[in-house]
Amino acid sequence: MKEIIKTVNAPAAIGPYSQAVKVKAGTMLFCSGQIPLDPQTGEIVGETASEQCRRVMENLAAILAVAGTDFAGIVKTTIYLADMNDFGSVNETYASFFKSDPPARVTVEVSRLPKDVKVEIEALAVL
Fold this sequence. Notes:
Blueprint: E1 2-5, E2 20-23, E3 28-34, H1 49-67, E4 74-81, H2 87-95, E5 104-109, E6 119-126
Parallel strand pairs: 4-5
Antiparallel strand pairs: 1-2, 2-3, 3-6, 4-6
Helix pairs in contact: 1-2
């Protein structure tokens, strides 16, 4: 019923989860939350929330590509911020990845994110 999507061009899972799961009987791709890790070094990329958001989106792009889609296929995202004061700068960076018709989205502030990063984004895409 499902196919695990995995690529070395996005950070490996740092816990018991997959980078993404493709539903074989359907056309849905469920991408796990991505944080701003360099897939080769495992190090956090970026000091600011905007810089970290760019790396997160690049990681999502790599996962989407392996599954056979791109940002146009995303229908829903959830953005987790460590500080809602970063909303404007993250929003600007995030928006640059969607040329038209951006997906539905939820943005929430959380008390802490893995590795104390500033932003994490998960996505749901149609293939």
